[in-house]
Design brief:
The chain is built from 13 helices and no strands. It is mostly helical. The chain has one domain (57-345).
Length: 346
């Protein structure tokens, strides 16, 4: 019995060693399945996901904030340019107000995720800021010569060029047949609007061409920067506005004597510029905040509604706006632009 027990013990050790050698061989040959088994979802995980989802009231407030800011800022800038015809000055005030607002938030709440300017992020962000500033400058200058609807038409046509530029630079696929039809509808609506535009101004349309080029470039390049340079929402607002300040000063010197320093200021002019600064701060935050809370399609729907509100507000304030045919072309651009975004997301 003792001898048999020893044999069994020796045999057991040999078998164990053989199994270990077999496992080592499987590992070296890559045949051993070492993939970890995913732990089943627990009620705690479900509770955490529910807590991470924004509440309905938060989303509704974000939508309303962005809608109010987006639909009114274009018209407010039009009024500001009418009373203070100095685009670099108005933009400088808006940038300064936004940068100071972020600094004030950081002073009041030091725990907020707001970074100071850092060279490694600044050198990557400055080119995006430059394009952003050129977009605003050309947009504001164009508003001095043309009506709000004309600017909206140009903005609605930008997906045509963006889709081509994305394909060439970021290797994105070209639009589908439905997308091409939507883009052609945008171009058709723009053509209807231009034909119906009785107040055609060469200088204004020159600024619109510049605005179109800059905004198409900005859409593609800033998308690349946002994806590669990680920042919080308020940090991105701070970088964007702070780095735009010297650009506004340089363009003011380049364009000659500032009209803001030679004109006779009144209460209406001061209030228009101040209101544009307040709404500028709000929309800087509201845009990034809403994108974080809702899908891209929902954001596009809100943007379409904002354009419609801008047209209605503009019609109530100004006598210089498009006629019925021009409005029809504008509606074609907006609807086709929404349909293109919807097709692209699919």
């Amino acid at each position: 019995m003792v001898a048999r027990t020893k044999d069994e013990a020796v045999y057991g050790r040999v078998s164990q060693n053989e199994e270990e050698d077999s496992e080592m061989a499987d590992l070296s040959n890559g045949t051993k399945d070492t993939t970890p088994v995913a732990a089943p979802a627990t009620s705690k995980d479900s509770d955490k996901e529910d807590k991470d989802k924004p509440s309905g009231s938060v989303v509704i407030f974000a939508v309303l904030l962005y809608a109010v800011c987006s639909s009114t800022l274009l018209v407010i800038n039009k009024v500001a340019m009418h009373l203070v015809p100095d685009a670099p000055f108005i933009l400088f005030c808006q940038f300064l107000a936004s940068a100071l607002a972020v600094k004030l938030l950081k002073a009041v709440s030091p725990d907020m995720d707001i970074e100071e300017l850092k060279w490694d992020k600044t050198k990557a962000f400055v080119a995006a800021t430059f394009l952003f500033y050129l977009c605003l400058l050309s947009n504001t200058q164009a508003l001095h010569y043309v009506n709000v609807e004309t600017v909206i038409v140009v903005r609605s046509c930008s997906p045509i060029a963006v889709s081509l530029l994305e394909h060439v630079t970021l290797k994105k696929p070209l639009p589908s047949l439905q997308g091409i039809v939507a883009l052609l509808a945008i171009a058709g609506g723009a053509g209807i609007y231009v034909i119906a535009d009785k107040g055609f101004d060469v200088t204004g349309y020159g600024w619109l061409v510049a605005y179109f080029i800059f905004i198409v470039s900005e859409m593609v390049f800033v998308k690349f920067i946002v994806d590669t340079v990680k920042m919080s929402t308020w940090t991105r607002v701070y970088y964007n506005n702070t780095l735009s300040l010297p650009m506004a000063m340089i363009s003011a010197f380049a364009m000659g004597e500032s009209k803001a320093t030679t004109m006779e200021w009144n209460t209406s002019a001061a209030m228009a510029v101040a209101l544009s600064c307040v709404v500028g701060v709000a929309i800087s935050y509201a845009g990034f905040n809403l994108r974080k809370l809702v899908s891209a399609t929902s954001f596009t729907v809100v943007g379409v509604i904002c354009k419609l509100l801008s047209v209605l507000i503009n019609d109530l304030i100004w006598s210089k706006h498009s006629n019925a045919v021009g409005h029809a072309g504008l509606m074609v651009c907006i609807v086709a632009g929404f349909m293109y975004e919807k097709v692209k997301k699919k």
